[in-house]
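Lab notebook, bench 4. We co-purified these components, and the gel suggests they stay together. Before we commit to crystallization screens, I want a quick structural picture of the whole thing.
Request: model the full complex, all chains together.
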Amino acid sequence: SRRAMGRAMGLAGLLLGLFLVPAVLVSTSLRHGVPLTEPETTRELAEWEPVSGTVREDSLWPLPQWLRTSPRQLQLAPGRFQLVHGAGSTAGPDCGLLQDAFRRYIEYMFGQSRRRTWGRRPPGGLTGPELWELQVVIEAPDPGCNSYPQLASSEAYHLTVTEPVAILKADEVWGALRGLETFSQLVHEDDYGSFLVNESEINDFPRFAHRGILLDTSRHYLPLKSILTNLDAMAFNKFNVLHWHIVDDQSFPYQSIYFPELSDKGAYSYNHIYTPTDVRVVIEYARLRGIRVIPEFDTPGHTQSWGKGQKDLLTPCYSGERPTGSFGPVNPILNTTYDFMSKFYKEISNVFPDAYIHLGGDEVDFSCWKSNPEVREFMKKQGFGIDYAKLESYYIQKILDIVSSYNKGYMVWQEVFDNKAQLKPDTVVQVWMGNNYADELSSVTGAGFTAILAAPWYLDYISYGQDWKKYYKVEPLKFSGSEKQKKLLIGGEACLWGEFVDATNLTPRLWPRASAVGERLWSSRNVTDLQDAYERLTNHRCRML
Amino acid sequence: AENEPPSGTPCTQLLIFVATPGCDGFPSLDSKENYKLSVSEDSMLLSADAVWGALRGLETFSQLVGRDENGTYYINNTEIVDFPRFPHRGLLLDTSRHYLPLRAILETLDVMAYNKFNVFHWHIVDDPSFPYESFTFPELSKQGAFNAMTHVYTASDVQTVIEYARLRGIRVIAEFDTPGHTLSWGPGAPGLLTPCYLGKEPSGTYGPINPTLNSTYKFVASLFQEVSTVFPDFFLHLGGDEVDFTCWKSNPKIHAFMKEMGFGEDYKKLESFYIQRLLDIISSLGKGYIVWQEVFDNGVKVRPDTIIHVWKENSTPYMEEMANVTKAGYRALLSAPWYLNRISYGQDWIAAYRVEPLAFKGSPEQKEQVMGGEACMWGEYVDVTNLTPRLW
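Here is the predicted assembly.
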């Protein structure tokens, strides 16, 4: 009703009346300005008000690149509003990915509403301007409905919300998914329970193409449900990579088809494994949300659990002349090692459709190698002297070659670069070591390699209070380098290592702290206002719940 | 070592023997929680002086029962004699910074029972919100709760908590913290809080409870009259911490009062004046009280059976405070090293475990004054989405 709109406008209008969002774009000349926040909405972070004051009506997260809203509000009727394919779209009803997304977003927006009657608009009796539907128009000849998202996928979208029909245009379905999320964030309820959306126009695309979350399912097993819930949360924050650190020292939950003993002997128990079906479920669930799944099978270190099911894979450690009974990293001197790895990575390349596999290569402890006389002998033969980094590189290179032969690209932790292995030009180096990561970024990109940043975003390091702010404040491009170098930093990842994390505490520990990283990686460089972020984030968090 | 297959008659009963009746009473500071547990092939016997000990013994018994790879439940021959070292073992939950739905509180009480905690310190109201539905002053929650319909504890909720706790041998000690930490009281009780001044004019903001008005004491008496009937435990926690004097200092009427009373510029005296009258009110209601350490630090005259709650880690090393409090003859509770809301990375349980409450210089009589302690989970960054994994 008009009165309802008036009332709603009284509050919302005041807040949104002069709402202009800043966005400085690299390329086009689009309008930009300074956010004008009404004094009433500015809250002292230090003080708490006893009763909640005026709440921002729409809290977008991450903040789009360019946004213009007007105070004019349109109503949506849960029983009538539809998400549809627009005329001229290269995607249609046979696009399963979009169909699934349509249903999902209707549920997110109106799920709480109890109105279930499906009906046409009552004739006559105008109740106010209504938004009938959102039309999704995919423009690229191949929309991507049946493909997997890639690093180069387009996630850009253009959204116009005007009476009576809103239009969401995107090159590919991935952009449509991002746009649907944003649209769902624009729809809000007024005091009377009416669903409203402000007339707006949004032009959006991610600043960085690789925006990931690392989950560790080796230190603690994470049940499938937990991983899927996390993928949902990632989609709310426009993350597009799940870096699945699936195995490590502690346990090997990945059920391999060629080498079933690996999980038979290496998993915590038969109940703590990911069957091929589980893995497929994760990959498809992620795909439907525009999320790539990059598995990490970290070697040669971090492999204790591999040795349980694969004899002779790990290096036996020695004390003097005798083996101690304990094992170290993968044994790089045996041909059997490479036979195994060759077959293993063949399976992995088939099971995981992404163009990239993460090969690990971090924290290799040389002491076991040093203790083993055969390894020492090998070092001599190869002319490595006592430089075990050379042995490590020797190993890694062979793995890199194996993986390349399966037409996969690879990601590695920074040590592989630091220890001077010969990397293919399209290797992605993940910078994780905390001290001086800016220098490392300069080195990696200076050498011509692509990099992603994780070092300041180790979210497992929880601390008391609002630590999201320190993650938000990180500026990934703050390192010395040319423009060309800066382009090689393709994104970053928030990492939740599992030493102290399992399904009982994963969600509250990761979210909404990771949301800070999400905005940093998606939104424009000058979206840095902590006060504004705080307000949007508190609302975004409640919405995610 | 292999387990022998179970032989003889499988155990069918745990006999429970309680010496003194008291099923329908409430646990108290003096309750006896000792028990003896005897498990052998012939019999399984749990004996306790009081039902509270039986509860503790049942928990222990449940922890002794194991299950082997065949799924058979078993228990080893066991003899246990057990009693708590400290009689007050508490947990503080803060339902003002974030509202905690009833089920979160009840779940916490369950886990407290698994860990033999016996005091639920309910920090129920504070600056940000007033969720307690008072029948004497319904406006307090109507105006002061985050949402008066959804974010409140009705009288029935409160009774549910008290009974749920009682059935687990847990005392419920409510804290209505005054004179500071009371911003949420203001909207529902106009005239209660001190108006702060900016120069000659009221600034529009408020400070602690106004200790200079008779109406204040009338209000406080009525409210605590209600609270003493609602909460059956002998003790009430009266707060008394972190009173910010700036607002009082800014208010000319307070100034005048200070002069009149001969307090000079010492606002601690004004704080004491309030606290003392509050304590008298509580005593007249037949209740005992626990207060935060500032009440002791600021030299307020308190009853000899007052319990002082030591919480500050920084100003004075808390062990020194424990020594001072007990030396002055008061009983003490320790919380300072156990602020579990201050989460950090890794196995921070170790630091909490290593605390030795009696590691201060004092006579054996002083040490006897330490009643125990409380783990505190302040709610600034805690709500139902993360309470359980943060606390346990």
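Chain B touches chain A through 28 residues (CB under 8 Å). Worth comparing against the SEC data before the next meeting. Residues 15-82 of chain B form a domain with the Chitobiase; domain 2 fold (CATH 3.30.379.10).
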